[in-house]
Structures are given as C-alpha cells and as structure tokens.
# Entry
Amino acid sequence: MKTFSQRIAQFCSSHGLKLNRDLGQHFLIDDEALAGIVEAAGIQPEDHVVEIGPGIGILTRELLKCAKHVTTIELDSKLIPLLNKYLSSNEQPFDKTQSRQANELTILHGNALTTPLPEHPCIIVANIPYHITSPLLRHIFLESSVRPRSLTLLIQREVAEKICDTEHRGILTILVSLFGAPHLMFTVPPQSFLPPPKVDSAVLHIECFAEPIADRETIDRIFSLTKIAFGQKRKMLRNSIGTLERGMAMLKRVGIDPERRPETLTVEEWVKLAEER
# Structure
C-alpha cells in the first residue's frame, strides 16, 4: 500500500502538476505535521478558517473536518481545479475524532497580500510561501480593517525563531508583539514537503489580542522610529534615535540608555518612546 506522501506525489504527477518554487510551492506531505497544525490552531466547530495558499488542498481537507466555514485564497489559477479534484478524492492522511464536513467552502482566486479578510471573526491557518511571511503579517496587522483571532502559520524556522526571540528583537518581532503573543509550536524538517525546501520549517501560533497594545498613531510612530534605528542596528541608539531633533531628550525621559542597541528594546519600551512628542 502506498504511503500518504506517495499518493500525493502520484496525484501531482497524474495531473501533470509541476510545482513553482518561485511561488514558494512546497506541499506538506507529513500526516503527523498536518495533525499538529490543526491541533495547534485549536479550531472550534463554529469557527471560520481562512487558509492562504491551499495548493491542491492537503491542509484544506483537514480544516474542513473541524471548522464551520473554510475560505481559501489561492494565487495560482491552475491549482484551483486540482484543489476541487483533490478535495473530492479519497486521500485521507489522518482521522479526527468527531470530525465532520464543513458547512461551507469558499475558494478565492487572488493575492493574499491584497485580498480583504472576512468582515467577521476568523482564524488563519496556512502553510505559506516563506517569502511572503513579513508582507503578509504587515497586511493582516497594519492594513486589514478586521484582524483574525489567531494565526497558525507554517513558515521558515529561522523566521519563527526570530519572531519569538525575546532577547534580540527585530522589526517583525515588534510588529507581532504589538498585536498578539507568538509561540513556536514545533519544527518540521524539509523531507516533510514536496518538493523539500532547503531550510527547516516551524509552526508559529499567534494568539491575537482583543486590541493592539498601542493606538494606530503610536504604532505608526513606532515603525518610523524602528526604521531609523534598525537601519543602523549595530549602532547604539544615540547614533540613530539620538540624532533626531529632541532624540536624546526622548530617550532620557523614558529611561532608555542611549548606549543600548535597538534589538534590546522591549515592545513596551518602543511604545513609551513613540508616545513621546
């Protein structure tokens, strides 16, 4: 009997599907990892799940067992007919207790970086192309009128580790921390994908706050300041923020040592600094 991964490879081969590495198309073919993603997302029976880049629907099928409504957003138009074919096939990577078919499935052809999220609460669960991680998080948190309750994303391990790093924070770490609490759930090796990527992957779960920890004006100012500071990240704050008009005074008033480097500041310190006028 063929394994689940062999059946997926055969499905792709029989339909003449050649995956586009430029679009970051790496299908997850590890049934344990699929089950782990669904568990990490904590999907409830009444949830609306948004999946970005469903491919042929390997993860979609498992989401359909748990959620009331699944909306997929696929950029590659040639995959949409195959998505429908796969979802109607008999490929079953794992059984889930008390699973049921979703009430609704919506398939959208579009770019996830510009497609609006549903106007009602949803959660995002997706194996996303690595190169869109940063712009996708910016789109969701800074550009969307409606934010999800949570995100569970299979992304590059190094990026997931940086987002969760509490000692050396980058701009992406600060962005996520303004809107939610990130947790690295587990790692996924290259051989779990078709074709295998060149790097390890990880499942990142972000539990979103009911409201961001700062207002929009403050958030905009945070990113103006971080752009300056991280443009010279190996330099001390006195050589970046400190060169601004009243920059040194701002640092002094909020109690931030100008000898520190930007990656050492907590998100709360960035908020205090941005609130200075």
